[in-house]
Design a protein that fits this description.
352 residues, Arc Repressor Mutant, subunit A, Beta-Lactamase, Enolase-like, domain 1, 3 domains, five-stranded antiparallel β-sheet, three-stranded antiparallel β-sheet
Protein backbone atom coordinates (compact mmCIF):
# COMPACT_ATOMS: atom_id res chain seq x y z
CA UNK A 1 0.00 0.00 0.00
CA UNK A 2 1.24 3.52 -0.83
CA UNK A 3 2.28 5.44 2.32
CA UNK A 4 -0.36 7.94 3.36
CA UNK A 5 2.14 10.80 3.09
CA UNK A 6 2.46 10.17 -0.66
CA UNK A 7 -1.13 11.44 -1.01
CA UNK A 8 0.26 14.99 -1.10
CA UNK A 9 1.71 14.22 -4.54
CA UNK A 10 -1.74 14.20 -6.13
CA UNK A 11 -2.31 17.00 -8.63
CA UNK A 12 -5.35 18.19 -6.69
CA UNK A 13 -3.46 18.50 -3.41
CA UNK A 14 -0.52 20.21 -5.12
CA UNK A 15 -2.80 22.72 -6.82
CA UNK A 16 -4.59 23.54 -3.61
CA UNK A 17 -1.45 23.81 -1.52
CA UNK A 18 0.12 26.14 -4.08
CA UNK A 19 -2.99 28.30 -4.18
CA UNK A 20 -3.24 28.42 -0.40
CA UNK A 21 0.41 29.46 -0.04
CA UNK A 22 -0.04 32.22 -2.63
CA UNK A 23 -3.12 33.55 -0.88
CA UNK A 24 -1.54 33.42 2.56
CA UNK A 25 1.65 35.13 1.32
CA UNK A 26 -0.44 37.91 -0.16
CA UNK A 27 -2.88 38.51 2.70
CA UNK A 28 -1.26 37.03 5.79
CA UNK A 29 -4.63 35.61 6.92
CA UNK A 30 -5.87 32.02 7.32
CA UNK A 31 -7.47 30.73 4.13
CA UNK A 32 -10.92 29.14 4.23
CA UNK A 33 -12.28 26.46 1.90
CA UNK A 34 -14.51 28.77 -0.17
CA UNK A 35 -11.71 31.28 -0.65
CA UNK A 36 -9.32 28.49 -1.62
CA UNK A 37 -11.76 27.04 -4.16
CA UNK A 38 -11.91 30.43 -5.89
CA UNK A 39 -8.16 30.98 -5.60
CA UNK A 40 -7.28 27.58 -7.07
CA UNK A 41 -9.85 28.02 -9.84
CA UNK A 42 -10.88 24.38 -9.77
CA UNK A 43 -14.49 23.11 -10.07
CA UNK A 44 -14.77 21.52 -6.64
CA UNK A 45 -17.32 21.97 -3.89
CA UNK A 46 -16.32 23.65 -0.66
CA UNK A 47 -16.85 20.31 1.10
CA UNK A 48 -14.35 18.57 -1.19
CA UNK A 49 -11.86 21.38 -0.69
CA UNK A 50 -12.29 21.06 3.10
CA UNK A 51 -11.56 17.32 2.88
CA UNK A 52 -8.35 17.88 0.93
CA UNK A 53 -7.31 20.63 3.34
CA UNK A 54 -7.95 18.28 6.25
CA UNK A 55 -5.73 15.65 4.62
CA UNK A 56 -2.96 18.20 4.13
CA UNK A 57 -3.33 19.23 7.76
CA UNK A 58 -3.09 15.62 8.92
CA UNK A 59 0.13 15.30 6.91
CA UNK A 60 1.58 18.36 8.60
CA UNK A 61 1.51 20.76 5.64
CA UNK A 62 -1.24 23.03 7.03
CA UNK A 63 -2.29 24.21 10.46
CA UNK A 64 -5.51 25.67 11.88
CA UNK A 65 -5.06 28.78 14.05
CA UNK A 66 -7.27 28.79 17.12
CA UNK A 67 -9.05 31.97 16.09
CA UNK A 68 -10.11 30.87 12.62
CA UNK A 69 -11.60 28.00 10.68
CA UNK A 70 -9.15 28.75 7.87
CA UNK A 71 -5.70 27.24 7.53
CA UNK A 72 -2.14 28.46 7.07
CA UNK A 73 0.97 26.68 5.75
CA UNK A 74 3.36 25.16 8.28
CA UNK A 75 7.14 25.21 7.87
CA UNK A 76 6.77 21.76 6.33
CA UNK A 77 4.17 23.10 3.92
CA UNK A 78 6.41 25.97 2.89
CA UNK A 79 9.32 23.54 2.45
CA UNK A 80 7.27 21.33 0.12
CA UNK A 81 6.10 24.41 -1.77
CA UNK A 82 9.65 25.72 -2.20
CA UNK A 83 11.05 22.33 -3.22
CA UNK A 84 8.25 21.12 -5.50
CA UNK A 85 5.75 23.83 -6.40
CA UNK A 86 7.68 27.10 -6.64
CA UNK A 87 7.69 28.78 -10.05
CA UNK A 88 10.35 31.47 -10.07
CA UNK A 89 9.76 34.65 -12.08
CA UNK A 90 12.90 35.84 -13.91
CA UNK A 91 13.99 39.34 -12.97
CA UNK A 92 13.05 41.93 -15.61
CA UNK A 93 15.91 43.15 -17.80
CA UNK A 94 15.47 46.72 -16.62
CA UNK A 95 15.72 45.62 -12.97
CA UNK A 96 18.91 43.69 -13.69
CA UNK A 97 20.39 46.71 -15.46
CA UNK A 98 19.46 48.99 -12.57
CA UNK A 99 21.15 46.65 -10.11
CA UNK A 100 24.27 46.48 -12.27
CA UNK A 101 24.41 50.25 -12.59
CA UNK A 102 23.90 50.94 -8.87
CA UNK A 103 26.57 48.42 -7.88
CA UNK A 104 28.92 49.74 -10.54
CA UNK A 105 28.57 53.27 -9.24
CA UNK A 106 29.32 52.09 -5.70
CA UNK A 107 32.45 50.23 -6.76
CA UNK A 108 34.54 53.37 -6.67
CA UNK A 109 33.93 53.65 -2.92
CA UNK A 110 35.59 50.33 -2.11
CA UNK A 111 34.33 46.93 -1.06
CA UNK A 112 32.48 48.08 2.06
CA UNK A 113 30.45 50.62 0.12
CA UNK A 114 29.65 47.94 -2.46
CA UNK A 115 28.45 45.57 0.26
CA UNK A 116 26.43 48.34 1.89
CA UNK A 117 24.79 49.15 -1.46
CA UNK A 118 24.02 45.48 -2.11
CA UNK A 119 22.31 45.03 1.28
CA UNK A 120 20.31 48.24 0.74
CA UNK A 121 19.23 47.12 -2.73
CA UNK A 122 18.15 43.71 -1.43
CA UNK A 123 16.07 45.37 1.27
CA UNK A 124 14.57 47.90 -1.13
CA UNK A 125 13.62 45.35 -3.79
CA UNK A 126 12.17 42.74 -1.41
CA UNK A 127 10.86 44.98 1.41
CA UNK A 128 12.62 42.61 3.81
CA UNK A 129 15.94 42.73 5.67
CA UNK A 130 18.95 42.49 3.37
CA UNK A 131 22.21 41.02 4.69
CA UNK A 132 25.61 40.71 3.00
CA UNK A 133 28.82 39.34 4.52
CA UNK A 134 31.96 41.32 3.86
CA UNK A 135 34.23 39.58 1.34
CA UNK A 136 37.00 37.60 2.90
CA UNK A 137 40.48 37.32 1.56
CA UNK A 138 41.22 34.25 -0.49
CA UNK A 139 43.50 31.53 0.84
CA UNK A 140 44.21 32.85 4.34
CA UNK A 141 45.83 29.64 5.56
CA UNK A 142 46.34 29.14 9.28
CA UNK A 143 49.98 28.39 10.14
CA UNK A 144 50.01 28.62 13.91
CA UNK A 145 47.92 29.91 16.83
CA UNK A 146 48.80 30.75 20.43
CA UNK A 147 46.71 32.03 23.33
CA UNK A 148 47.74 34.17 26.31
CA UNK A 149 45.47 34.78 29.31
CA UNK A 150 44.62 38.40 30.07
CA UNK A 151 42.54 39.91 32.88
CA UNK A 152 38.74 39.92 33.23
CA UNK A 153 38.03 36.79 31.16
CA UNK A 154 39.91 38.04 28.15
CA UNK A 155 42.35 36.07 26.03
CA UNK A 156 44.89 37.28 23.48
CA UNK A 157 44.83 35.12 20.35
CA UNK A 158 48.01 35.32 18.25
CA UNK A 159 47.52 33.79 14.81
CA UNK A 160 50.02 33.38 12.02
CA UNK A 161 48.34 33.09 8.61
CA UNK A 162 49.79 32.49 5.15
CA UNK A 163 53.58 32.72 5.32
CA UNK A 164 54.27 35.29 8.00
CA UNK A 165 51.25 37.55 8.58
CA UNK A 166 50.54 37.88 12.32
CA UNK A 167 47.05 38.78 13.58
CA UNK A 168 46.42 39.63 17.24
CA UNK A 169 42.86 39.49 18.58
CA UNK A 170 41.52 40.02 22.07
CA UNK A 171 38.59 37.68 22.67
CA UNK A 172 36.11 37.65 25.54
CA UNK A 173 35.36 34.26 27.07
CA UNK A 174 32.60 33.03 29.35
CA UNK A 175 35.09 32.05 32.07
CA UNK A 176 38.75 32.43 32.94
CA UNK A 177 41.30 29.99 31.49
CA UNK A 178 44.70 29.07 32.85
CA UNK A 179 47.83 29.32 30.76
CA UNK A 180 48.04 25.52 30.79
CA UNK A 181 44.48 25.15 29.48
CA UNK A 182 45.13 27.64 26.69
CA UNK A 183 48.32 25.84 25.72
CA UNK A 184 46.38 22.58 25.41
CA UNK A 185 43.79 24.36 23.26
CA UNK A 186 46.49 25.82 21.00
CA UNK A 187 48.18 22.41 20.66
CA UNK A 188 44.88 20.83 19.65
CA UNK A 189 43.96 23.54 17.14
CA UNK A 190 47.43 23.55 15.57
CA UNK A 191 47.43 19.78 15.21
CA UNK A 192 43.90 19.68 13.82
CA UNK A 193 43.76 22.75 11.57
CA UNK A 194 47.26 23.99 10.64
CA UNK A 195 47.52 24.56 6.89
CA UNK A 196 43.78 24.85 6.37
CA UNK A 197 41.98 27.93 5.09
CA UNK A 198 40.80 30.13 7.97
CA UNK A 199 37.24 30.16 6.60
CA UNK A 200 37.23 26.36 6.58
CA UNK A 201 38.56 26.25 10.15
CA UNK A 202 35.85 28.63 11.28
CA UNK A 203 33.10 26.65 9.59
CA UNK A 204 34.31 23.34 11.05
CA UNK A 205 34.44 24.80 14.55
CA UNK A 206 30.94 26.23 14.26
CA UNK A 207 29.58 22.96 12.89
CA UNK A 208 31.19 21.06 15.74
CA UNK A 209 29.53 23.38 18.25
CA UNK A 210 26.16 22.27 16.91
CA UNK A 211 26.90 18.69 18.02
CA UNK A 212 25.66 17.31 21.30
CA UNK A 213 27.86 18.85 23.99
CA UNK A 214 27.52 15.70 26.13
CA UNK A 215 29.55 13.78 23.54
CA UNK A 216 32.55 16.12 23.84
CA UNK A 217 35.34 15.72 26.38
CA UNK A 218 36.63 18.67 28.41
CA UNK A 219 39.52 19.53 26.09
CA UNK A 220 37.33 19.41 23.00
CA UNK A 221 34.68 21.63 24.59
CA UNK A 222 37.30 24.16 25.69
CA UNK A 223 38.96 24.13 22.27
CA UNK A 224 35.66 24.76 20.53
CA UNK A 225 34.71 27.57 22.90
CA UNK A 226 38.02 29.43 22.62
CA UNK A 227 38.68 28.58 18.98
CA UNK A 228 35.22 29.63 17.82
CA UNK A 229 35.61 33.02 19.47
CA UNK A 230 39.11 33.50 18.10
CA UNK A 231 38.05 32.80 14.55
CA UNK A 232 34.70 34.59 14.83
CA UNK A 233 35.79 37.89 16.31
CA UNK A 234 38.02 38.84 13.43
CA UNK A 235 36.81 42.35 12.67
CA UNK A 236 35.25 43.39 9.40
CA UNK A 237 36.26 40.29 7.50
CA UNK A 238 34.11 38.21 9.82
CA UNK A 239 31.11 40.54 9.77
CA UNK A 240 28.19 41.54 7.65
CA UNK A 241 26.14 44.58 6.80
CA UNK A 242 22.38 44.47 7.25
CA UNK A 243 19.76 46.89 5.96
CA UNK A 244 16.00 47.15 6.33
CA UNK A 245 15.53 45.48 9.70
CA UNK A 246 12.61 47.80 10.39
CA UNK A 247 10.79 46.33 7.36
CA UNK A 248 10.15 43.26 9.51
CA UNK A 249 8.07 45.33 11.93
CA UNK A 250 5.42 45.72 9.24
CA UNK A 251 4.47 42.04 9.37
CA UNK A 252 1.77 41.21 11.89
CA UNK A 253 3.25 37.83 12.77
CA UNK A 254 6.54 39.51 13.73
CA UNK A 255 5.04 42.46 15.60
CA UNK A 256 5.47 41.00 19.10
CA UNK A 257 7.87 43.29 20.96
CA UNK A 258 9.78 40.49 22.68
CA UNK A 259 10.16 38.59 19.42
CA UNK A 260 11.51 41.67 17.65
CA UNK A 261 13.89 42.33 20.54
CA UNK A 262 15.39 38.84 20.23
CA UNK A 263 15.70 39.19 16.46
CA UNK A 264 17.36 42.60 16.64
CA UNK A 265 19.71 41.26 19.30
CA UNK A 266 20.67 38.49 16.87
CA UNK A 267 21.43 41.10 14.21
CA UNK A 268 23.65 42.93 16.70
CA UNK A 269 25.33 39.85 18.17
CA UNK A 270 25.92 38.46 14.64
CA UNK A 271 27.27 35.05 15.66
CA UNK A 272 24.13 32.98 15.04
CA UNK A 273 23.36 34.63 11.72
CA UNK A 274 26.99 34.38 10.62
CA UNK A 275 26.96 30.67 11.41
CA UNK A 276 24.01 30.13 9.09
CA UNK A 277 25.56 32.28 6.37
CA UNK A 278 28.88 30.44 6.66
CA UNK A 279 27.10 27.18 5.86
CA UNK A 280 26.07 28.67 2.51
CA UNK A 281 29.58 29.52 1.28
CA UNK A 282 30.19 25.96 0.13
CA UNK A 283 26.75 25.53 -1.49
CA UNK A 284 25.91 26.27 -5.12
CA UNK A 285 22.87 28.29 -6.09
CA UNK A 286 20.20 29.80 -3.88
CA UNK A 287 19.71 28.26 -0.43
CA UNK A 288 16.46 28.61 1.53
CA UNK A 289 16.17 28.03 5.29
CA UNK A 290 12.61 27.92 6.58
CA UNK A 291 11.93 28.43 10.27
CA UNK A 292 14.19 26.49 12.60
CA UNK A 293 15.90 24.70 9.71
CA UNK A 294 18.53 27.38 10.32
CA UNK A 295 19.27 25.73 13.66
CA UNK A 296 18.44 28.67 15.94
CA UNK A 297 15.22 29.45 17.80
CA UNK A 298 15.39 33.11 16.78
CA UNK A 299 14.58 32.05 13.21
CA UNK A 300 11.27 30.48 14.20
CA UNK A 301 8.66 32.00 11.89
CA UNK A 302 11.34 33.42 9.60
CA UNK A 303 12.95 32.38 6.35
CA UNK A 304 16.45 33.11 5.10
CA UNK A 305 17.13 33.09 1.34
CA UNK A 306 20.83 33.23 0.46
CA UNK A 307 23.34 32.89 -2.36
CA UNK A 308 27.11 33.04 -2.27
CA UNK A 309 29.03 35.55 -4.36
CA UNK A 310 32.40 34.91 -5.92
CA UNK A 311 35.39 36.82 -7.27
CA UNK A 312 37.28 35.13 -10.10
CA UNK A 313 35.33 31.91 -9.41
CA UNK A 314 36.41 31.91 -5.73
CA UNK A 315 33.52 32.20 -3.22
CA UNK A 316 34.27 35.11 -0.89
CA UNK A 317 30.93 35.87 0.79
CA UNK A 318 27.20 35.32 1.10
CA UNK A 319 24.22 37.61 0.72
CA UNK A 320 20.51 37.16 1.25
CA UNK A 321 17.30 38.38 2.80
CA UNK A 322 15.57 37.60 6.08
CA UNK A 323 11.81 37.83 6.40
CA UNK A 324 8.69 35.98 7.52
CA UNK A 325 8.08 32.49 6.18
CA UNK A 326 5.24 33.91 4.08
CA UNK A 327 7.63 35.93 1.91
CA UNK A 328 7.00 35.88 -1.89
CA UNK A 329 9.68 33.34 -2.77
CA UNK A 330 8.96 33.57 -6.50
CA UNK A 331 10.17 37.20 -6.42
CA UNK A 332 12.81 36.95 -3.70
CA UNK A 333 14.78 34.01 -5.14
CA UNK A 334 15.72 35.66 -8.48
CA UNK A 335 16.54 38.97 -6.76
CA UNK A 336 18.98 37.21 -4.41
CA UNK A 337 20.45 35.12 -7.22
CA UNK A 338 21.04 38.03 -9.60
CA UNK A 339 22.37 40.36 -6.90
CA UNK A 340 24.94 37.74 -5.86
CA UNK A 341 26.20 37.40 -9.42
CA UNK A 342 26.34 41.16 -9.97
CA UNK A 343 28.11 41.84 -6.65
CA UNK A 344 30.77 39.30 -7.51
CA UNK A 345 31.24 40.92 -10.89
CA UNK A 346 31.50 44.39 -9.34
CA UNK A 347 34.16 43.16 -6.90
CA UNK A 348 36.20 41.52 -9.66
CA UNK A 349 39.51 43.41 -9.88
CA UNK A 350 39.82 42.68 -13.60
CA UNK A 351 36.39 44.07 -14.50
CA UNK A 352 36.45 46.71 -17.26
Amino acid sequence: MMPREDLQLSDRARTMLRALVHRYVRDGQPVGSRTLAREADIPLSAATVRNVMADLEDLGYLASPHTSSGRIPTDKGFRFYVDSLLQVQPLADESVEELRQRLGESGEGGRERLVDTASTLLSHLTHLAGVVTLPRRNHAALRHVEFLPLTEQRVLAIMVVNQCEVQNRVIHTDRSFTESELQQVANYLNAEFAGQDVTTVRRRLLDAMQAEREQLDHLMSTALEVGEKAFSEGGDEEGYIVAGQTNLMEFEELSDVERLRRLFEAFTRKRDILHVLDRCVAADGVQIFIGQEAGYEVFDGLSLVTARYAVEHEPVGVLGVIGPTRMPYHRVVPIVDVTAKLLGAALNPSRP
